[in-house]
Amino acid sequence: MDPTDRLRQQLVTAAVLTDFDGTLSPIVDDPADAVPGPGAVQVLGDLAARAAVVGVVSGRPVDVLVRHLPDDRLHLSGLYGLERRVEGAIADMPESHRWRAPVAAAAEDLQAAAPPGVTVEVKRLSLTVHYRRVPDAAAEVQALAEAVALRHGLTVRPARRSVEVHPPETPDKGVVVEELAQGCDAACFVGDDVGDIPAFDALDRLADKGLDVVKVGVLDEETAPEVIARADVVVEGTAGAIAWLRSLL
């Protein structure tokens, strides 16, 4: 049976999980301009009325996700799980407050040294250094982010036309996926970037425990090839991702 069909048949005991940028929301030059694609909010609400768990796991702060996805039935995990909204309540991971000062100091250093055209998105408990407007600066940005992160006891992760700077204890999306899928009989994750690969890894681990899983890769001109290689299902762009989610109903 097709993996999507298996998930659809078990929707009431399934965890339906997805990324935000590049999946529910088209990629834009300025992250502040990102909004969910047509139908995204509606389909998540419809799924929340039927599935066991519906959640968005993103590198964005939870307050940004809440602004676009206010439905309290949705589990929102921001900053790769450093921030969570579950049943309407927003909370940070334990001990995460101690990283606010190092992150703020790193933000100042990066903003002072960033090449022209590079922007530093400050997220309270993490940073994203965007070089989308100047892709030739990728290597310079990577080296700068690594040096600043080392100076402040932080770590870096690659992302889509950007580099992310996090506290070293930051969970990855796989940790969040496994937590949200506890007690479910099936699970899926929809994603497009290297940061989503740990979510696919988590689904593989859940499959080993007997869950039916579906890894959905969202294809566009910037999608990480590793995502497509790992996907069970490939869809075209955010419109395809939203349509696939709609197909579960």
Write the layout of secondary structure elements.
Elements (H helix, E strand, L loop, with lengths): L2 H7 L4 E5 L21 H9 L4 E5 L4 H7 L6 E4 L4 E4 L2 E4 L7 H14 L5 E4 L4 E4 L7 H14 L3 E5 L2 E5 L6 H8 L5 E6 L5 H12 L3 E8 L5 H6 L2 E4 H11 L2
Parallel strand pairs: 1-2, 1-10, 2-3, 10-11, 11-12
Antiparallel strand pairs: 3-4, 4-5, 6-7, 7-9, 8-9
List keywords for this structure.
single chain; 249 residues; alpha/beta; Rossmann fold; Alpha-Beta Plaits; 2 domains; 8-stranded mixed sheet; 4-stranded antiparallel sheet; 9 helices; 12 strands; 35% helix
Notes on the protein architecture:
The protein is of the alpha/beta class. The chain has two domains: about 5-95 and about 170-245, HAD superfamily/HAD-like (Rossmann fold), CATH 3.40.50; about 95-165, Alpha-Beta Plaits (2-Layer Sandwich), CATH 3.30.70. The chain contains nine helices and twelve strands. The strands form two sheets. Strands 5-4-3-2-1-10-11-12 form an eight-stranded mixed β-sheet, sandwiched between helices. The protein has a four-stranded antiparallel β-sheet with strand order 6-7-9-8, with helices on one face. Helix 4 (about 100-115) runs antiparallel to helix 5 and helix 6 packs parallel to helix 7. The longest helix has 14 residues, at about 100-115. The chain is globular and about 55 Å long. The mean pLDDT is about 95.
